[in-house]
Amino acid sequence: MTDRTSPVLFAYALTGPDAGQKLDGTDIARVLRDTTVGWVHLQADHPATPGWIAEQMPYLDDTVPQALTAPATRARASRVGAGVLAVLRGLNFNDGKDPEDMVAIRIWAEAERIVTLSRQRVRALEDIAEAISDGQGPHGAGAFLALLAERLNARMEPLIADLDTETDALEAQVIGQPDQELRHRIVAMRLQVIELRRHAAPQREALLRLEGEDIPFTRAQDRRHLREARDKLTRLVENLDEMRDSLAVLREELSGQLSDRLNRHMYILSILSAIFLPLGFLTGLLGINVGGMPGAENPHAFWYVCGGLAVVVLLQLWILRRARWL
Q: Where are the domains of the chain?
């Protein structure tokens, strides 16, 4: 049963005699103080989190706990002494949340300990925890950072691929069957793409910093994995840029087609109005109920009037044709 008074969500030993085991209670403090590598994940907005950090890691610079518990963050990475302070973001798959409203993962990594914090559930961290339990997890802080970056990309890639496929489908619909409802779909997708890119682009720079910083506990293999993760994220950001531009073009194309359709309808109504306005005037004039109306006593007057109106219509069509309105 989870201890509600503790900010610790879960903890694992990555190396040493307890490697691969889930830790609790005094084992967490022991592993964090040993020379073995341990990982602890905390609830960032738990009221006891600042106190836990101060107790377990009193040597930290004051700016580090503040950055780890700050309510608002952006993707970043920097070396602080012998450790690394990083903030990465993962897709939000929690109930009632939009995936593009990405969850911040605050990270403090040293040679022997890793502390992560988040305000909401993060599936990428759960993937790593499952891999550790299966004996296939990382064995160092550098490998942990590289694996986390890879898992975040792996969660993001299918969503961006689906958005790309939907963008292609929208393009065919806009060209083939433009509809007012498509406007709302295009706007919603464009906002989703913009929100994803807003978080993904700074994260690419953060991975570049992790790859390029002279971090003592990262091996050459870890840096290669970080480089691969950054390259993949760069491709994802480029796909988002392309989709954002495509959706903007589709919105303009849809607006143009809907405007052209409206103009055609108004043009047809204008032609019909031009034809029937004189006819309405003539029939209205002949319909006045006063004495002296010509043809009132003639049994063939109705057909004469119909013939005259037909001549008027033909004359109007000839004039509109000469004026290139038809």
A: 8-256, 277-284+304-326
